[in-house]
Write a structure and sequence with these properties.
alpha+beta; Butyryl-CoA Dehydrogenase, subunit A, domain 3; disordered C terminus; 15% strand; seven-stranded mixed sheet; globular; two-stranded antiparallel sheet; 627 residues; 18 helices
Length: 627
């Protein structure tokens, strides 16, 4: 079945679930009401259905290649990119002063979703440019902005990011690319970068690389890294691509999937570069682009989940096998279970991504720290859960197809091969989890507590209309609250063993919340049925992820697995548990900016954790069960 843009899903999530009306109610986005948004998404959807989707299979079979040092992209990609650029879809959220439309990030998120479903390998090209535009808007000099942004926004030029080196992957601080200052104020960039997505193409006038490198006197580690803009062709005074810079694509990687997207090994041999931001401020500037990309990559997972679900549903409705009332395999209970799981998880992941986009928009429009903190909190969750969902749904799509799913001609296998990398690049999902329990909890968990207050408050309201579903969501949120309290009471270095299950548990709770909101808006429709399936069948996963007995996240528990069980053999904690440290400092249930709502119960004689680390006994006594 050809791809169909899920316009109704976008409308429903924006209006019923994530509160887009708050965005369009601000002065900054007052002209971006839902009527305008729906018109924009309809046009983007047509382009994705009619132009990009037909390119997807060819991009897999006719991969990008190097011929005599020149990039050759798959047949049709140049025309597809032209449609993206001429339609203004490269950077619709870029500031008007940069030449962009100034539309909310929520709109860009929906457009990226559709482009990713239609042709993920090509969608990755403008996604990189979007992140570079944002980085330059925030950190570049006025001269660089004036020269580069207009060309990037129109899609005449393309942007990339260059971080990774053979010896410096996740450990960016180990990079060795050098930047030598020159008398004219520019820098000579020398070194090799690997895994550079869309490091070159054959359809834009120029390719602009953001490169992390070290100055000669730079301090070790990430604090000694600076960011440089290094174009393939050095622009002349009029902004036209001039002489070729001293850089080249050495080779292309041979990959599991995403064959249409060239992943390059780049060599810089004294290439001319321009400093972006301050010396030693490279990571801060690059994180602007990376955070943009992490939202975008999470949406790539959602996009493939959508495409895989559509393909699996179409196949199940057509494939005749066995005896069912429908006459096709969609009548089989397990096939229906798989399709419902695919649909429910795709909805949850998409809602989380759009909730982050709305938080970004509200942070920009209001300048309020709470919105900015929520956007930051949701970034690793969007990226990790979105991509994990894409992989799981694509895998399930292969299963729905049965033996034909293992045959390349159906396209089901391509979805799985293409999406697999999304859990790896832009920070592996394990790193996202470490970011969530580490950097994102430096506020003592306040952003998380505010979000949990919102979830529990809505669940309380929904109890009158949907008591069973609302109660399940409230209890899941309370479990997440208590796990968060235990987490923030633990030293940062001791949190990482439980980071991945914590992130997934957080995402599961958010999914339940967003499904409940959708069901409350349409209590008699398909949204309510899908919400019931998610909340009854998928949300309970959180109990094995968030349940904690009288222990804590810790390096000392790593050899026991990432889930900590009760030592007294009683069933896992599904009720509220107060935790207090061995010093006797109790923690009550917290809300808002950490207000204690209930005093902690007296401690049971649970005994200390026996794990030892660096000669220090780590204790965490359990409080009393409050049933």
């Amino acid at each position: 079945m050809p791809y169909r843009a899920p316009l109704e899903d976008f409308r429903r999530i924006l209006t019923d679930v994530v509160g887009y009306e708050q965005v369009s109610g601000t002065d900054l986005y007052v002209e971006a009401g839902m009527e305008t948004v729906e018109a924009v998404l309809t046009e983007a959807g047509k382009m994705c259905e009619e132009v990009l989707a037909p390119l997807n299979r060819n991009g897999d079979l006719d991969p990008a290649r190097l011929e005599n040092g020149r990039m050759r992209t798959p047949r049709g990609f140049a025309e597809g990119y032209k449609a993206i650029a001429e339609g203004g879809w490269v950077a619709i959220s870029a500031a008007p002063e940069s030449g962009g439309m100034g539309l909310p990030m929520a709109v860009t998120t929906c457009v990226n979703d559709m482009m990713g479903s239609a042709c993920l390998a090509l969608q990755l090209n403008p996604l990189m440019t979007q992140g570079q535009i944002e980085a330059l808007e925030h950190h570049a000099s006025d001269e660089l902005k004036a020269l580069y942004l207009p060309k990037l926004v129109t899609g005449e030029w393309q942007g990339t990011m260059n971080l990774t080196e053979p010896q410096a992957g996740s450990d960016v601080g180990a990079l060795s690319t050098r930047a030598e200052p020159l008398e004219d104020g520019t820098y000579a960039i020398t070194g090799q970068k690997i895994y550079i997505t869309w490091g070159d193409n054959d359809f834009t006038e120029n390719v602009c690389h953001l490169v992390l490198a070290r100055l000669p006197d730079a301090v070790p580690g990430t604090k000694g890294i600076s960011l440089f803009l290094v174009p393939r062709n050095i622009p002349d005074a009029d902004g036209n691509p001039g002489v070729a810079n001293d850089l080249k694509v050495v080779s292309l990687e041979h990959k599991l999937g995403m064959h249409g997207s060239p992943t390059c090994v780049m060599q810089y041999d004294g290439a001319g570069g321009w400093l972006v931001g301050k010396e030693g401020g490279g990571m801060r500037a690059m994180f602007t682009m990376m955070n943009n990309a992490r939202l975008g990559v999470g949406v790539q997972g959602v996009a493939i989940a959508e495409a895989a679900t559509q393909a699996a549903l179409a196949y199940a409705q057509e494939r005749r096998q066995g005896r069912t009332p429908e006459g096709t395999i969609i009548g089989h209970a397990d096939v229906r279970r798989m399709l419902a799981t695919m649909r429910a998880d795709t909805f949850a992941a998409r809602a989380i991504a759009l909730a982050q986009a709305v938080a970004i928009d509200m942070g920009r429009a209001t300048g309020e720290a709470d919105w900015q903190a929520r956007a930051a909190l949701l970034t690793p969750i969007t990226k990790a859960f979105g991509t994990d969902t894409g992989i799981a749904v694509a895998d399930m799509g292969v299963q729905v197809h049965g033996g034909m799913g293992y045959i390349e001609e159906t396209g089901a296998a391509q979805f799985l091969r293409d999406v697999r990398v999304t859990a790896i690049y832009e920070g592996t999902n394990g790193i996202q989890a470490m970011d969530l329990v580490g950097r994102k909890m430096m506020d003592g968990g306040e952003a998380a507590y505010r979000l949990l207050d919102e979830i529990e408050g809505f669940a309380e309201t929904a109890r009158g209309q949907m008591p069973e579903l609302a109660t399940r969501v409230w209890e899941a949120a309370e479990s997440l609250r208590e796990t968060t309290e235990a987490l923030v009471a633990t030293e940062v270095a001791d949190r990482f063993a439980g980071a991945v299950p914590y992130l997934r548990g957080f995402a599961r709770v958010l999914g339940g919340y967003f499904h409940l909101r959708a069901a409350m808006a349409q209590p008699e429709g398909g949204a309510a049925r899908l919400a019931r399936f998610y909340i009854e069948r998928l949300l309970p996963e959180h109990t094995g992820l968030l349940v904690r007995g009288p222990g804590r996240f810790g390096r000392g528990h790593a050899d026991h697995g990432t889930t900590i069980w009760r030592r007294d053999g009683r069933r896992p904690l599904s009720h509220r548990l107060s935790l207090r440290c061995a010093s006797g400092a109790g923690r009550g249930r917290r809300s808002g900016r950490g207000r204690a709502l209930a005093a902690p119960a007296a401690a049971d004689e649970a005994g200390p954790c026996q794990c030892l680390r660096a000669g220090r006994r780590r204790r965490l006594d359990a409080g009393r069960h409050r049933l």
